User: Fold these one by one.
Assistant:
Number 1:
Amino acid sequence: MSRIASVLIPMPLPEAFDYEEPEGMALGLGDQVAVPLGPRLIRGVVTALRDGTGGNRPLKAVAERLDEPVLPPGTVEFVQWAARYAVDVPGAPLAIALRGARAPRPKPTRVLAATGRAPARATPARAKVLEAAAAGPRSGADLARAAGVSPGVVKGLVDEGCLAEQLVTPDIRFEVPDLGRRGATLSASQAAAATALSEMAAGGRFEVALLDGVTGSGKTEVYLEAAAAALASDPQAQVLILLPEIALTQAVIARVTQRFGARPGEWHSDVTPPARRRVWEAVASGDCRIVVGARSALFLPFRKLSLIVVDEEHDGSFKQEDGFIYQGRDLAVARGKIEGAAVILASATPSLESLRNAEVGRYRWLRLSARHGAARLPDIELIDLRETPPETGRWLSPPLVAAMRETFARGEQTLLFLNRRGYAPLVLCKACGERMTAPDTDSWLVEHRYSGRLVCHLTGFSMPKPAACPHCGAKDSLVSIGPGVERVEEEARHLFPEARVAVFSSDTIFDAREARRLVESMAEGEIDILVATQAAAKGHNFPKLTLVGVVDADLGLRGGDLRAAERTYQLLAQATGRAGRKDRPGRALLQTYAPEHAVMQALKAQDRDAFVEAEMAERELAGLPPFGRLAAVIASGPDAGQLEAFMQTMAQAAPNTPGVEVYGPADAPLGLVRGRRRKRFLVRADRGSISQPTWRPGARGCGHPGRSGWPSTSTRTASCSA
Ligand code: ADP
């Protein structure tokens, strides 16, 4: 009996395509195959098999079953679920899932091994090389270095046949976690949380817990215990730990390595393609049992995923905003459900969504309310900038500078937090008032002094800072308005010429290694003043950091985002939470023009629950997340008239369902990006009142508004809420 294979292809196609299974190929679900698509052969994954033939429309045949790992059923199901959830085509998440499978394998390297033959002429240098080679094969350069001799000595031994060349493939095996090792001795409250989570993690079924503990309370120690329990429960069990930032990934990798005596698999954008391939294959084979990574690690082909930890679960970086749009935290819960795995969401400032789920009992709620040991939470004070403003052209107010001086005098460290990259967020012509913007995008160009360029942070466009205003031609009239981290660094260096000052932002730290180095040198006390964006403000433990100065506490409150207050609270609570550890009490000073604002008052009183309660009440009244759903539907196109017409058609086809409101069309917050105009609808819906997709403009619609016959206009549906 012939069979038909449905093959999902990692391309923007609406569904899996049917192919005939050639006789004897014996395909299985999840097999990677090569199939003809148009003139090409493309890699795909078998998602279904059924008996039958193409009937009178003969099907093309699967060309080859690839000698590659099989995608486990959970991964295939997850990819399909994620596509439905994100209202996207399944090829989009499949492309993410296959990223590691398509990366090149690590190349074999040339090494030299001792052959046993003695050299005709024995010299001390030669003896040292042979001694080094006895420890195992390695490259010629390595041998010379180890023996402390010139490369010529090594070459001489090769020529004489005492050393021979071998090709070796790098060891792709992962070290086995040592479950005999013990973690830290836990305090009573930590132990209670660890016991509950360990039971969950070893239980072999889906359940979610919110690990809600103040900064420094030992959440990491606690979830590592749960990881140990999961690994011990089954020799095949795998654990995934997700982090929002590469710098944090590095810190957690170090802790996992220390806890289990084995380095975990590392997965994020900065991992080289061969290393990715190695992790991907080892996850698929079950060889790699712990993965620490960024959100896309959720799409790895786990064979037996038993525990997923989402650390800093509130963090906005778990959301992917372009390409395949998804919220990593939500997908983690979905993957947990599909795999029958436990999920731990950890944070000092959980998202309102997760808190709500904990309140209503959908998630287990475990709280750690004190810092570990003698460490106390920092004292938080507000600096009213209306009363004690900085000098003109400066950004640090006298009380903050005085506190920095005291801190420096004690040999302790200061973190100045400003969530703004570059030197100045705006460059303006003082002659004509022109603001420098990107040519094809509605956003200000940010001045970067290190590179001497004006940069669009949205599209990456950049240009040298011009000598004259491009609008009115006035010479030397361009002035830098407002501060970015580089400008605050300049001020700190000016105020404290003898201090060691460093900047941590994505412009100054390019990769994981540099991030690790900077975090280490801060932890070692080699930096006195660190000026940082959010890249450094989260999760790290710096024992000598006792002062955190927030340069512009009001920054995140501007702009009308639904989560502005929540995010500001989370970010500032995280940033101030860096201050004071172990035996050194910390202090945090927040510079603000709005000290009476609820967010500032809650931070000062360190009363998260009061803030959450007030914010929840407002959201509930308005039916906004987590009490309702909110989605943005953004359409873009190069022609303003055509876009407007499209939006009007969309408006007429808008769902007319009780409990669903559609607002708009209106200009999107960024009305022009890369030459395309953008307009937006906002859809608010009661929970449970909408099942995707319900918006079908015209009869041609296929349920996905972006593919409804409007050639130059594209629409994306961005789900904003759980
Ligand atoms: P969190 O993840 O809540 O910020 P961590 O797990 O990073 O907290 O703990 C903060 C610091 O306290 C770390 O340096 C950690 O090693 C230490 N710590 C926490 N709990 C213990 C414990 N039970 N014994 C020893 N050190 C601990």
Number 2:
Amino acid sequence: MPEQAIKPVISVSQLRCIGCGKTALPDRFRCEHCRDLLEIIYPGWANAGPAGLDPSALRSLWLKRRASFEPPDQSGVWRFREILPEIAAEQIITIREGNTPVYELVHCAKSAGIKQLYAKHQGMNPTGSFKDTGMTVAASFARQAGYHWVACASTGNTSASMAAYAARGGLHSLVLIPDGKISWGKLSQSLDYGAITCQLKTDFDGCVRVLNEVVERMPVYLLNSVNPYRVEGQKTAAFELLEQFNWQPPDHVIVPGGNLANSSAIGKALREMKQLGLISRLPKISVVQAEGANPLVRSMRENGGEKLIPVHAETMATAIRIGNPASWKKALRVIRESEGTVEQVSEIEIALAKAEIGAEGVGCEPASAVTLAGLKKLVKEGFVKPNETVVLILTGHVLKDADFTLKFHRGDLFEGMPQEAETGTLKSHQRSPLILEPSVEAVIELLRTAEQDLHA
Ligand code: F0G
């Protein structure tokens, strides 16, 4: 990659504790004084703006890069490099992440009771989830800092992404995942990309506990979302969204909540865009969790967000099966600052919302569908008004969890579960595969019936 293709000095970043405000060394994850999480700040922006550029120069530079064939310019993350930490051009590991589409969801809007609904589909990233946008930055930092090993605990998407970026960057990777509680599609990705993959007989929170100790004792760089460089990369999804909206903020952005880093990243991006004069107001950022994995919702409702109430997490949306989210304080700050809210949704509501998003030809994995399910509730409660513009952040591709989709359409997703009695509402959305004789007449007959049904 020619080095002159990328500007030499971009932004001088610093790590700062979100609790006590003290600065920290670049390869740390927690403050050594108070153990709180770290975030990246750019002190130089206050005087001259990123790379000395004003909002209109930044906007046109970022857009212009879309016509370039240089790998960092082709990345929907690195084309925004003025708002990212400085990484030397030759250290950048990119699989051309970002540049994801925004789709209007006409039928889902109607079903939720609003006029303007959009989905920013982060599942359209190279490994099929939003994790790639953060991973390109954090894996590049790991390589630049001289690490040979990277590691993560994961519900499946972080591990798929990390394994791919490590492989592309010539790094070795170690994955810890909860045994039997992630989709086989995600597991297969981490195997395919060459990670050492360990299924631990515990849940995600248990995997995190083990890994935190491993990285203390071994020269292995942690790529979980407490890693502040990941948050920086994930920020770019919001910059790109606003670019796609011609820098006019929507009224609401709705994000699924698991470990709560993505909502933090989107919120940080919007805060920075406002500080930089790229937008004039913040959209309300709301976080939706599954009822069975709802520590943030419980904490907000039961103690106003004063302290986290960890839960034993259980949901079929395995990506967000997390009971003790690391980034809850960051997410809380974003929700408060933007005047957003939190909501929780049931397993049936998730399944229905996923089918509705699929029926618009978009599709997503169950964890992403909590956004639409949550939106419906927020409209009913009057938090979202019918004439407001809403963007759902869809985090994972529909093929990430084909098992869930197949079971849903065959009608056995909730078999033997307490929810089985409530599945009546799902019937009209189910399209199980039809088994037919190989006969032209049989297929034509079927088509005729289907056509009649459409007009019935
Ligand atoms: N949606 C999907 C598809 C995810 O994979 C995740 C998290 C989330 C939403 C929640 O994002 O944690 O930033 O609040 N997956 C992680 C993983 C935990 O290991 O893949 P969050």
